[in-house]
Specification:
Helix content is 34%, strand content 20%. Helix 4 links the parallel strand 1 and strand 2. It is an alpha/beta fold. The chain is built from 14 helices and 14 strands. Strands 3-2-1-4-5-6-7-8 form an 8-stranded mixed sheet, sandwiched between helices. A 6-stranded antiparallel sheet has the order 9-10-14-13-12-11, with helices on one face. The relative contact order is 0.12. The protein folds into 2 domains: 255 residues, 3-Layer(aba) Sandwich (Rossmann fold), CATH 3.40.50.720; 78 residues, TATA-Binding Protein (2-Layer Sandwich). Bound molecules: zinc ion. The site of zinc ion (ZN) has 10 residues, from helix 9. Zinc ion (ZN) binds next to helix 9.
Length: 346
């Protein structure tokens, strides 16, 4: 009875009904990025009753996240817990019948096919242009639909892509803008209610698609400014796809990484005093052995997804199961690499 009545208010909707609810139950959705957009979209989809929810994020919860990322608590920031793990834990208390699949990983051209394997639809909740272009390529190759969402300041936009092209994301934005030209939440701020609204719209488009209400899908780019009360929808001329490298000419350069788009695996993380060092291709970390070797060096924290060494000189080294290392306390790449070589090895 409990499970029969759980979705009552949803199955009453003419566009959903019991057949729609059955389709929601059979769907496998990935939420790429468990930040402001991802936590809200994941919450809506989990409560709506999707079959499987893959929660993908490379980061840990920080204090600046709590203003808008509604699945996280102060205790998560204090403990520096992995976002994907916390999100899965909280959502399982809201709807225990969903198969949650937390993945603490940095998505790149080498692993995206594995990370998004057997997924029916992807929610783009990343704040990273390279990952978004990679997702666009992935979507076109495997014909997987995705819902783009972006939010910065008090503005946001949403668009649905079928995975069949004409249009695709690259029709609109042919190349990623240089990092210096992008306003980010770290530099421009972001309104918590705006991210909730955008994520809500993304989840709405996802539910329309999953339940087979494909005529109801919004086809243009929907841009909103929540502060200045403006909204507009821009149709994308199909002609744009003729000159599109991805859906027009079939060159999936981010996925195939043939033109130098594969990003350097070592990077200074935006707005933070930390450097991330990517895992060597095809290698994962032996966390147990590493944690043992750190025993006398400082404070060692061990979780299912990562191990962390806090050194007396206020440096923190976090090694994730996927082999990636995060060094907090410096933004000097050279120093980070030497710390990595000394404590983690090559
Ligand atoms: Zn295109």
């Amino acid at each position: 009875m409990q499970s029969l009545s759980r979705y009552d208010r949803q199955t009453r909707l003419p566009g959903i009904g019991q057949p729609g609810q059955d389709r929601i139950r059979q769907s496998r959705v990935a939420v790429l990025g468990c930040g402001a957009l991802g936590t809200v979209a994941a919450d809506i989809l989990a409560r709506a009753g999707v079959g499987a929810l893959r929660l993908i994020d490379r980061d840990v919860v920080e204090w600046t996240n709590l203003q808008r990322q509604s699945l996280y608590y102060e205790s998560d920031a204090a403990a520096g817990r992995a976002k994907a793990e916390v999100a899965a834990e909280r959502l399982s208390q809201a709807n225990s019948s969903v198969d949650y699949q937390p993945m603490v990983t940095d998505v790149n051209a080498n692993n995206i096919t594995t990370v998004l394997a057997e997924i029916d639809l992807v929610i783009d909740a990343t704040d990273n242009f390279n990952v978004r272009f990679l997702l666009n390529d992935f979507s076109l190759r495997y014909q997987i639909p995705w819902v783009h969402g972006g939010c910065v300041g008090t503005t946001g936009q949403v668009m649905f892509f079928t995975g069949l092209g004409k249009p695709c994301f690259r029709c609109l934005v042919p190349e990623p803008p240089p990092a210096s030209a992008i306003a980010t939440c770290d530099t421009a701020g972001v309104l918590g209610s705006a991210t909730h609204a955008v994520a809500s719209l993304q989840a709405t488009e996802a539910i329309k698609w999953i339940t087979g209400n494909r005529d109801a899908i919004r086809t243009g780019v929907w841009s909103l400014d929540f502060w200045h009360n403006r909204s507009r929808e821009i149709a994308i001329p199909e002609a744009l796809s003729a000159s599109c490298l991805a859906c027009g000419r079939g060159e999936l350069t981010f996925l195939d990484a043939t033109d130098g788009h594969a990003s350097d695996s070592t990077k200074i993380l935006c707005g933070r005093d930390s450097v991330q060092i990517g895992a060597p291709a095809g290698r994962t970390a032996d966390l147990i052995t590493l944690a043992r070797s750190w025993h006398d060096l400082g404070t060692v924290q061990t979780t299912k997804f990562f191990i962390r060494l806090t050194l007396p000189e206020e440096l923190t080294i976090t090694v994730f199961r996927d082999g990636r290392t995060l060094i907090d306390g410096t933004n000097d790449v050279g120093r980070a690499k030497s710390i990595h070589a000394r404590y983690v090895g090559n």
